[in-house]
# Entry
Amino acid sequence: MAFEVLIVGGGTAGWMTAAALSRLLPRGTAALTLVESEAIGTVGVGEATVPHIRFFNAKLGFDEAEFMARTFATFKFGIEFRDWARIGDSYIHPFGAFGEDIAGVPFHHYWLRARGAGDARPLETYSLPILAARQNRFARPSADPEDTRSTFSYAFQFDAGRYAAFLRAFAEARGVTRREGRIIEVTRAGESGRVESVTLESGERLRADLFVDCSGFRALLIGQTLGEPYEAWSQWLPCDRALAVPCPTAGPLTPYTRASAKEAGWIWRIPLQHRVGNGHVYASAFASDERAAQLLLDQLEAPPVAEPKPLRFTAGMRRRHWSGNVVAIGLSAGFLEPLESTSIHLIQLAIGYLVELFPLHQPDAAGEAEFNRIMALEYERIRDFIILHYHATERDDTEFWRYCRAMTVPDTLAHRLELFRERGVIARYREGMFLDPSWHAVLLGQRVVPRRYDPAADAPPNGVLAGHLDHLAKAYADAAATLPPHETFLREIGAHHEAAAA
Amino acid sequence: MSGQAGLERVQRIVIVGSGVAAWAAAASLAKVLGPAGRLRVVPAAETADAGYGGADSLLPLHDERLGCLRDAAAMLTAGDGSCGWGVAFDGWSPHARPWFLPFGSIGAGLGPVPFHQIVLRLRREGRAVRLADYSLPALAAQSGRFAWPGGPARSVLSTCRNALHLDVAALADALRERAGAAGVMSSRAPFASAERAGDGRIAGIHTADGTRLGADLVLDCSETAVLSGRDPWEDWSPWLACDRALAARVPRAADPPPYALAEAHAAGWTRHLPLAHATSLVAFFNAARGGEAAALASLERAGLAAEPDNVPLRFGRRREPWRGNCVALGAAAARLDPLVVGNLHFLLTALARLLELLPAEPRSPACAREYNRRTAAELDNARDQAIALYKTNGRRGEPFWDECRAMAVPDSLAYRLDTYASRGKVVLYDEEPFDEAAWIALFDEQGIAPPRNHPLADGFPIADLEAHLARIRAILLDELKRMPAHADHLARVRAAERRPDNAAREALP
# Structure
């Protein structure tokens, strides 16, 4: 009898899991069923991603233009952060490194040296994706490493509901069985405590060998049934509510997400092809729901097309994402606010490790241990990165920002901050999706300026360094000007949703 | 534009030591400090051991900051050495055949399926497949051929790494010359004492002739840890039980084989490290288990002519090699059982790390913390790999080896062993010194056999998997055909290094 896998819950996590397992596991390895209920909504809003999503899509064999047209997707060069370190600040965390290393020394050391000597050019002068983003231009990177236009990567912003539907069609075509219905009961084996089956409202029982809990915040199996404890991170990430509301697009199609800091949280702006997704993530201990709604609605570029939809959450994760024969993927495993667009990436990572560590027998203590070790590290590294945005600020205009500034951060982040402040170096760890350029962008964007740069960066004579910086600045500016407007490019490659409809 | 004016700066670096660690540090640091900086080398009054038996191995690093230390050809020539593709382990495994641990990848995956999972599947179907048959380094080692790894991405050679087997004293001499050419000054009078400030930092170094050298940063590159010797040391002897070594060098008429040999004997092992014209032999043993006789016999079998040196061993590492403004490097910082690569390698990685974290201010606690964390992680991983070789040995009936098999290993290694045994998955931690393939080769040949392959490997018909292996084999053999004999490679490198137009490069640090 085939190994039975039951995915509990549709939505982005459930259908990504179903689609990936149906594509990656050899036929006959596992029988895949997904149970979801149309009566239960999904959290899915306009969703921004990181470049890794392209590998996921490529593994599944998706055509990029078709995927974009079907999910109303836009291209994404990075995230603009407004008002974070100081009100009035704006920096972009791009998908690409700044400048070029010289003699093995990272570029930002040379930039710091020049800055100390009075060169006022901002760091983004040396980033093609930022320059292009600010001009609303986009093109895919060049494959020629000599071309300045090879110095970036990209991701998407898309409609998560449509992405789930797109994945569902793919998964069902590959033999995933979808069952409609609410789960009213979970049955566990007496002795081992393993989950045996779930019972639907109709009375039907679905048995399986492995359950993937994609039930979202409900955490039906991993939380409600197995009681795996949730480790809250609210002392570092006090935001616990969000309001989401779409509105029409006013102005050009931007190739980036925006995160604007507010009195007690931040507002996202995610451009899709047909509308803009907006949302306010805020801390209920520091702001009322009314005030949060007002701040969100006041800054919309066009009148909202729906009522703001409220969400509640607690930042954190379960120490054990895999427990017995239940593997939690998505919000059931943990939650980190979408400040750095990491939700889908964490789903993707979990799917990747589930495939890599696919249970060979039951129970599979070794697979479980390794999955939990790795996933915890991945969550914690992203957690640190997000906390950085709040903590490294000069804002003291509200109680919320004063709290964030003064809070004690996790040791791993404290070390990173001290090391960067001391000597401009990024602490190195194997796990963690954000690489050095991302830390450079956000640390410097948050005005964490190293006291000292690398002594080796003093090697080039003044004139040589200045000439090199001039040359780079011109190369990036020239290259950015050659990219077409974002919307033009989107239509040219057939990625516009009207192309799919036609 | 230059200079980080107005701040306390590290300008005076004193290196204490007389061996390869001191000169490697001096040669690579010389260019970083610039004209304003002062770099002094103060010899330590001690006899430099220069690695076990005066020879050691390393895997070249490509970190640009290392300057001349990343020039494999120059180091090969300076160290009168040879190149290696890996280590042949003889007498270690349960199957009793010698096996080869190659540097670099083994085979190539098929779609999402890792290569070794394909091999596990084929074995389950009754096919006898050896990993080493799909490794260019292993094949080249067997046939005595060598070419520098590298080349275009996706080429087979770009997936390989190599070792250098070097005469440590000769390398140290060459590095001293480079350092001197780069303007590094060295004191004639040896180290006498360190002047400690109230906070424990070293304010200056006094030499035997009464000179005081002010110091912002001090590197303890001495063999006997004259500055850091009292700092806590983590002792690895519970797991790495060899506590003495006999070292000798035997001349060799034949061409050097492009690999090192680790030959187990009744109470330890013997390293055969081919240099350009001689072979360095070091027999590591446990004295209490009567290893000296076995060690001696092993050297005699390898042609020992003269009385060998008998040296004590102390495997372990400094818990915090960087304390205050003093960084211990080389033997003062760590001593590893050099089963896979030598201590010279970890000197090089430590230097690369120090250059990345080179403090700009005398007080740099975060740099020290990061340096210590990464150093400890890397060394513990290397330690685990060495312990794994002892733990999984297949020699039954010899007390030394029976005890090794029975020993409790560090948790980090126990976890790796369990995870591999369950499914052929290699656990990797921060700062792994070797590729995943080195762990796979070790586990596989030392008899850790997962009960079944990954289900992904079941997704292909057997014929497809066999065709994939045949394809790899053909590509490797084709590459092998084009590869020169190791001796020819060495001769060519030496000739190129000694051409006059290389003189300019030699002068650079």
The radius of gyration of chain B is 23 Å.
